């Protein structure tokens, strides 16, 4: 799914504040002190991904962010997009070799942290740099765009804050890279789908996901990927201003409301998209109503059936229908 808030405007603003200079000075002092004592101990690749809770947040995230950018992945076991994004972030944390630290926060067990960061939906990804928090993106996203965001993050962290990251044990890193991971039966097709998404080939991604589902109709990653790729394909050629004006001017036009709901969801406005279509179901009947209902069910697949926003929207849909 197209990432939401996939921009580093927060980092750019952060670079201008006084904290940047102070953090850079502190980082330089920390490195100098470590050098006098024989240098900072190298960490293993496995130490680049940590589970964090409310009790250890100050130590594991805030304090660590004075040495390395900390990327926070807010997730939950019931969240299907989280199961797609989480392993990708973990792999990138090892690949970036200490340039950022990945902290994983289970929102079900850490509701206070979720509230403090103002999170409305997951997966949600934030960063903390020199004690300063900023949003990166929300929702699963193509790997190429995630890499672009991480590259910008580590660049700003080094240039503005002097944070060069953690030293990783070279021998341990080599061992981690050489460890063989058995390929799953659909890994090649799923990799092809991701590559197509990264290249902007939405039709190719759709076909790759359909190839998986033709053999395994219940494959969760392929179902999620297909729903997201189809959504992106639908909104790719839309003119957002025209679509939204058409929907506002024609509240009973089913196609206008469906198109606007697609834009809402692609832009991260999940509840707006669901609410728009539920309201349209209430105003329509017959084939029009069924068309809206079918599209709403497709949008549920983009987010994942276990997301609480989907659960609430299903209940609203049932009420509107019956």
From TrEMBL:
Residues 36-155 form the Thioredoxin domain. Pfam families: Thioredoxin, TPR_19, TPR_20. CDD domains: ybbN. One of its GO terms (biological process) is cell redox homeostasis. Gene3D superfamilies: Glutaredoxin (3.40.30.10), Tetratricopeptide repeat domain (1.25.40.10). This is Thioredoxin. It comes from Streptomyces laurentii.
């Amino acid at each position: 799914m197209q990432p939401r808030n996939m921009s580093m405007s927060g980092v750019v603003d952060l670079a201008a504040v006084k904290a940047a200079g102070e953090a850079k000075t502190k980082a330089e002092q920390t490195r100098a002190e470590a050098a006098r004592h024989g240098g900072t101990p190298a960490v293993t690749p496995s130490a680049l991904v940590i589970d964090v809770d409310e009790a250890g947040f100050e130590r594991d995230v805030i304090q660590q962010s004075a040495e390395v950018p900390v990327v926070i992945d807010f997730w939950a076991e019931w969240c299907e997009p989280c199961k797609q994004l989480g392993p990708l972030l973990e792999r990138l944390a090892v690949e970036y070799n200490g340039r950022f630290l990945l902290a994983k926060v289970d929102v079900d067990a850490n509701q206070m942290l979720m509230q403090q960061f103002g999170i409305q939906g997951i997966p949600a990804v934030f960063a903390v740099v020199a004690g300063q928090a900023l949003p990166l993106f929300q929702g699963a996203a193509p790997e190429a765009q995630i890499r672009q965001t991480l590259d910008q993050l580590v660049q700003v962290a080094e240039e503005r804050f002097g944070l060069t990251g953690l030293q990783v044990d070279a021998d341990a890193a080599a061992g981690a890279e050489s460890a063989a991971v058995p390929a799953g039966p659909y890994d090649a097709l799923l990799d092809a789908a991701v590559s197509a998404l990264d290249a902007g080939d939405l039709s190719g991604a759709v076909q790759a996901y359909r190839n998986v589902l033709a053999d395994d109709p219940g494959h969760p990653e392929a179902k999620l990927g297909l729903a997201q790729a189809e959504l992106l394909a639908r909104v790719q050629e839309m003119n957002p201003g025209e679509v939204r004006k058409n929907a506002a001017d024609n509240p009973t036009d089913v196609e206008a409301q469906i198109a606007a709901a697609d834009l809402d969801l692609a832009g991260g406005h999940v509840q707006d998209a669901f609410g728009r279509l539920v309201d349209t179901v209430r105003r329509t009947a017959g084939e029009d109503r069924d068309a809206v209902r079918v599209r709403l069910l497709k949008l549920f697949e983009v987010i994942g059936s276990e997301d609480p926003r989907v659960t609430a929207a299903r209940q609203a849909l049932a009420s509107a229908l019956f």
